[in-house]
Amino acid sequence: MLPHNNHPSTPNAPEVLESADVQIEPITTARGRETFGTLNQHSSCNKAYQIGISDAQGPRPTMEDSYGFVVDFDAVRGQGLFGLFDGHGNKLAAEWCGAEFHKYLLDTLQRHPNTPIPEVLTSMFSAMDQTLSELSQSSALMAASGCTAVMAFLRIEDADGQQSFISSSPSQPADRTCLRQARTPPPTSKRVLYCANAGDARAVLCRHGEAIRLTYDHKASEQSEIDRVRKADGIIFRGRVLGYLNVTRSLGNHEAHDGFSLKKFIVGTPYTSRTELCEQDEFAIIACDGLWDVMTDQEAVDLIRGIEDVQEASKRLLGFAFGNGTRDNVTVMVVRFINTQAT
């Protein structure tokens, strides 16, 4: 692990849920502004993808989901960072992750520019979890809080996986947040989608109509996770780790339960994947288990494939979830790829 700093068949379309609980992320655009350092800000300069987000508290007493995205992430035109965090215990861990995750990835990337991205993502998750541990020492509420996490990093690369259009310029500052304008990669660049997740929040790619899962569900029903927990001297009963939590990986959860440290069993180490995008790749769906508990990956892809408007697509998925009985908070992010060339 890298050293790190701790701080810096098509279903019938349902009626879309219309209630005061439904929150639709407005498509506000920063015209003439660079947004590569700004969280949750759309940009008129972005020609590489479109983002639609919908969420709803549903019947739960509180909303414990959080999300974030950065257009032209790390000052590279066409890059994007997308994250979703599904809280449990309370909302503190998810809210903190949603507000801070992009800073942790940027810091790790800039300190380890030649490290494979999956390793960078693993180190980033570890750093975030360590900070949550430190925050938990002075806050019982934070100690009781945790969240599943899923991130997708759309990266522009050379054929060899490097970014020579950045490193080959000696005049570029090391801290790219100081730049006034994002770099435009050469047209020969490729787009690679890196994903990382801990828990059961999920990312799914639509490739020419086929659903391809990019993440792994870490649940107490998965044999590999059962074996890992047991090897750490933990137990799973009633389908939950120590009878408490049905996911086996998360960020946070730095409290003791029945005299045991939950973190010994519910670890924050993510599953990672790398997918080089091609012309057949249409969009990605990033959502919490409130959606995936009531529909399959392929059903989700089939439901929205014919919807060009990404905001309407995310809203349609949200409506399906509640129309089919989900009892959880639901957050859905749809990222539609405009083309496969860096722009």
Automatic annotation (TrEMBL):
One of its GO terms (molecular function) is protein serine/threonine phosphatase activity. Keywords: Hydrolase, Metal-binding, Protein phosphatase. Transmembrane segments: none annotated. The keyword Protein transport does not apply. Coiled coil: none annotated. Pfam families: PP2C (PF00481). Residues 50-337 form the PPM-type phosphatase domain. Gene3D superfamilies: PPM-type phosphatase domain (3.60.40.10). SMART domains: PP2C_SIG, PP2Cc. The keyword Metal-binding applies. InterPro entries: PP2C, PP2C_BS, PPM-type-like_dom_sf, PPM-type_phosphatase-like_dom. Residues 164-173 have a biased composition (Low complexity). Residues 164-185 are annotated as: Disordered. Belongs to the PP2C family. This is Protein phosphatase 2C 1. It comes from Hypsizygus marmoreus.
